[in-house]
Amino acid sequence: MSVSKKYYIIDFDSTFTQVEALDELARISLREHPEREQIYKKIEDLTNQAMDGKLSFRESLAGRIQLLEANKDHLKQLVKHLKKQVSTSFSRNKNFFSRHADDVLIVSGGFKEFITPVVLPFHIKKENIYANTFVFNEEGKIVGYDEANPLSFEGGKVKLLRELQLQGEIHGIGDGYSDFQLKEFGMIKKFYAFTENIERKSVTEKADHITPSLDEFLYVNNLPSAISYPKNRILCVVIGDVPDIAVKYLKKDGFSVKQVASLEEKHIAAAGIILMGNKASISPEELSRAAKLKVIGYLGNSKKYISHDTCTAMGVVIFDNIRKPESVAKRIAKFINNGDSFKSSNFPNIQLPEVKNGHRFIHIHRNVPGVMAKVNQVFAGHGINIVSQFLMTNECIGYVITDISAEYDKQVLKDLKNTNNTISFRVLY
User: Fold this and answer.
1) Which of 175, 195, 220 is the last residue of a domain?
2) Distance between the two ends of the chain, CA-based, in angstroms?
3) What span, in angstroms and rounded, lies between the C-alpha atoms of 64 and 55?
4) 3-state SS string over 102-160?
5) 334, 403 contact by CB (below 8 A)
6) Per the domain annotation, does 344 fall within a domain?
7) Shared domain check, 175 and 243
């Protein structure tokens, strides 16, 4: 039985990149203009009206081009800027684009002149980039665009896909109304509203799935991802007096953050991370019900308010810092992202290098003889070579990080979880 080919239609502005490129081009081209702030506002309003479906795309595009006063030199500056503004989750998932180079299409109402040089380093094929093109005068100034291009029209993405007649199952990812139109007109099987950079309610309420990051999209579609579990699915519960700088850091890193006045049962059961202000507390009984909890950040000295012994026995890492709330947030993110337990208050301290083109497993176990031998027997039994391994222990637990380069059977994970004296196990990436 043949499997239907899959295609992934991906938007550029506010999806592949964090920004709207024409808005950024305006900031470059109008930098010296005396009325630049008023013009910026007009351009941004035109962008948002089109993205929300309140203005036709063609009207929005024509209006923005007229206001730009941009030339080829401005475009060079824009490309340099956009390369630094690629969405965080896209940047870490180059491997997906490499492995699916034949399946990914960039379809945008933006312009090839700035899109192509930004996406080519991600192994996206030049012939799979569909966008508008500028018209220049003899001095290199942008004076218009190719008005025959289907993407310059209202519903342009729908028109383009009708022309392409792709044979297979098509999924679309984007932040705007024009992306949703692909689903509305039956051109794609599923529409994923991408909200890492901006969330438009008029779009998200129509989506098949809201994807706060590319990791989420890859996870639900069982596609190769840089991390094994999307960070937006890890709930960070914030309790007590916690400065905004720490909360904002974790939100920016991609975690789902919920600030609460008190720790209720539902928060304890759902939390993967708890960030606590000084003198906030959690009892051993409450901890015992925190089945998903991986790490606690405490803005003070936690020893009087949290049972370190209970956390250690559960495999929950604690990071304290009295004076630097952002430092605690960074330690939390580093532990979730990389397995780094450096400066933990209750765990063996390990500082880890990042592994490229491989997989990292974290195994926390009771510090009793023979556990490491059994862990390594699992890898040997499945014919897996270990690239590197890091082990630190204290009197209670062992904390071991294992990096492998080969693909592995899911049974490996079950066998590692079922090893005697295992406290917790997770695949990092």
Assistant:
1) 220
2) 32
3) 13
4) CCEEEEEEEEHHHHHHHHHHHCCCHHHEEEECEEECCCCEEEEECCCCHHHCCCHHHHH
5) no
6) no
7) no
Tokens of 63: 């209006």
Q: Please, are residues 426 and 368 in contact by the beta-carbon 8 Å criterion?
A: no
- Residue 168 · residue 191 · CB < 8 Å: no
Residues 318/306, Cβ–Cβ less than 8 Å: yes
Residue 314 lies in a domain: yes
Whether residue 281 is found in the same domain as residue 331: yes
Identify the domain boundary among 338, 368, 401.
Answer: 338
Rounded-to-integer distance, Cα 149 and Cα 156, Å: 8
Contact status, residue 228 vs residue 211, Cβ threshold 8 Å: no
Range of the domain at 11: 6-220
Say which CATH number the domain at 46 has: 3.40.50.1000
Smallest CA-to-CA distance from 309 within 338, 332, 287 is with 287
Q: Which residues contact 159 (CB under 8 A, 6 or more apart)?
A: 150, 151, 153
Domain identity same for 212 and 278 = no
What is the side-by-side order of every strand in the sheet holding 129-132? 129-132, 104-111, 6-10, 169-174, 190-194, 209-211
305-342, pLDDT tens digit by residue?
999 999 999 999 999 987 899 999 999 999 999 999 99
Nearest one of 122, 63, 61 to 91, comparing CA atoms: 122
Query: Which tens digits make up the pLDDT trace of 152-202?
Result: 988 999 999 999 999 999 999 999 999 999 999 999 999 999 999 999 999
**Number of domains within the chain:** 3
Q: Is 145 found in the same domain as 26? A: yes
